[in-house]
Amino acid sequence: MRFFLSGTITVIILNILFVLPVNAQSYGLGFYSHEVVQDKRTTLDLSLSNVSPKENLEISFDLSFMPNHEIYFGYILRIVDDHKQNIDLVYDNQANTRHFKIIIGDRLSKISFNIDDKLLFERWNKLRLLIDYKYDKITIFSGRESFSESGVHLQQSRNYKLLFGANAYRQYQTTDLPPLKLRDVNVTQSGTLLANWPLNEWEGCVANESVNQNNGTITNPLWIKARHRNWQMEKEFTVPGDASIAFDAANEAVNIISQDSLVTFSVNKTPQLKSTAYHSGRQLLVPGDQALFGNDKLYYLYIDQMAVATYDFKTGRWNKGFKSLATNNGHLNKFYNKTDSCIYTIGGYGQLIYKDSVKCYNVVTNSWKKITVKGDTFTPRYLAGLGVNKTGDTAYVIGGYGSASGQQIVNPRNLYDMMRFSVKDKSFKKLFTIDVKDEDFVFANSLVINEKSRSYYGLIFPQHKFNSSIQLIQGSLDKASYHLVGDTIPFLFHDIHSYADLGYFPHSGKFLAVTLFRENDRTRIKIYSLLSPPEPLADKVVEISHVNYFLWIGGLCAAGVVLAFATVSIRRRKKVIPPIPSNVVNDLPVITHYAVPDVAEEGEHLRNSNKNAIFLFGDLQLFTPDGNEITKYFTPLLKELFLVILLYSVKRDRGVSSEKLNEILWFDKSEKSARNNRSVNIAKLKSLLDKMGHCHLSKDTGYWKIEIDYTNILVDYHNYLNIVCNKTRLNKQRIIQLTHITQRGNFLSNIEYEWLDAFKSEVSNEIIDSYIQFANSVQIADDPEFLIKLANDIFYFDPVNEEAMILKCKALAHIGKHSLAKNTFESFNKEYKTIYGEAFDRDFNSILE
């Protein structure tokens, strides 16, 4: 009886699960057509067997055409039965206005119809083909219209082939097909559903059937859902020297300005890539400068000379050239406002200074002016994202990298505020600050603004990495929530040598991401596309849905139901991806308080490594309660698995999802292979942690997490976090405690992983900030010797830290060691010049004042 009730509850829960809301219906199968060679065209082969010979057979499906192709001609569907009878649905755009036609056997039937181009190319259209054997009649339904022919002499059959697109089936083979999209193929008889092929897969060559598991086969599939998640490389090429880009959304083109020619990539024209040599001669371009398309013209901006060059597409000439390669205003943001016919520029960077100025160029009067702005403070920055509303009179600027003073040497940092700039009253208003819980990032130059949904899209990337990647995010214009959409794009970032931008072409429904990288006097351009609306990033979706569903079900039933839910969750992950609740993304817990032993206790613990401990500063070391070091038993893979889970557990107090582990450690393996590898290595890790005592691996919340009893096991990273998390509580004891931790070496100094870079950077920055904040609270006369040691500790992390140099020089001078103070200054100046290529801008006497 208990088993029966448990099973009944499980069934109820599973039924509820499958009616929960899911993401936008961006799925289906796309068909490669005449744009590729015959062997690369798409076939969908579906079969029906042992069909009861009843009165009728109905085949329905949703159909749409892919825009911007040259040829729309060929077979959409061929139905072939046991008697070698064929019924075909074809499309012929060379015919009259009725392009859709039905062929029966070797003749054109009387049935022909049309679907309005706007509906055909922009929406899904349901078609139903009804074969009525009793009355010897064929009817096709399209929207509210129906078209029929009687007396077609068809015989009933038990087996059918449904061949969509190209096929190689016996004498019915064909390679002619239009570039179509298909989904939700259903076959019914007298109201009974015989087969359903949703065509909602992400990948593979199998069309899963949901009624009788009568799966179909596909050759050369183009999965629509994948095109809403996976960026597709459109073009890759190089141009000599520097380059700049400008999106032309109206003509669906990307203009690439090079030194000797204008290269145009067109989404809906052939050829897609066209190069036009300048008739005005070679154009000198400046690294970091900007171009934009507005007022139906192409402009190149050179702020240092307060000049704008305009390109004439008819003559192939620029009306202006430039002389100098140096710039003081690179990587700025810009937009065109058609209300006042002005190009506005905001922010930028040059000569170690971040900019906050707003400038305006009137394209009618050819005049510049600097705008005096009001409202909220706009922090000087570059690497921000900017987007405008439809009329161009309101700009949204988010993120970037800069400093309050504008000076690169004074506490530069990542910025995450959303600022709104109004052209009408020339004012800034701060709307909100987004909450970044993981790795720091900046934005590509442009945002895509959707006023109707009050949302924006932007590309982000970590600017502190060379081998990086860019990620599309969707955020709100009214609140701080955002989430990741689409997969990542590889990106090499090296300051002015790199550039990334985002555009949206509404007619094609595509986002375009463009990356530039200059190397060896050539710039490599890569253009990627993604269909709209973009799908949420798979691993994030699963993490969030896993938490929500787990908590919900946990309140309803016992462990047996939870087990059933876990099974269904895995199956659903392959089929339907629900939306990310923005409140969950932004409200994941971050630990804010850590229990830490006092100075004497920790010093003793650090000196006696035979106590139970996990050390992450310096070399990675794990000691069991009896003093045995077990680090040597960790294979390279186990070590990385351990560190991923540990850092997310200690820093975030939440752990890490299985999907995130797969992404980091087994990204090159199939889902099944990754799951097997993960299970094996998780088991090994559990065994090793059991030797540690006072810590264990759990998944109670749906995330892999290492639970640690900090009263019995020392974790230096946990203690470090307790010190730096609240700088208002800093005192000499806590600073000494921090130096005890860092004296073992830099954080995981001998371990290098790409995902680990963000943690390392954060640790170094927090330690330096803590030391400096404490030093600023102490008078030099009170403890000069300790401050000298503190300055040396700062130099260990940052050899050209200006505040540490000044602190040390003043402290040495205070105790009468003037020559050592002068040597400290000269060593700093030498190192500064090596790194920045110029001398430090202050002399020794000025820093002692």
TrEMBL record:
The keyword Cytoplasm does not apply. Keywords: Membrane, Transmembrane, Transmembrane helix. Coiled coil: none annotated. One of its GO terms (biological process) is regulation of DNA-templated transcription. One of its GO terms (molecular function) is DNA binding. SUPFAM superfamilies: Galactose oxidase, central domain. The chain crosses the membrane at residues 549-570. InterPro entries: AfsR-DnrI-RedD_regulator, Gal_Oxase/kelch_b-propeller, Kelch-typ_b-propeller. This is Galactose oxidase. It comes from Mucilaginibacter ginsenosidivorax.
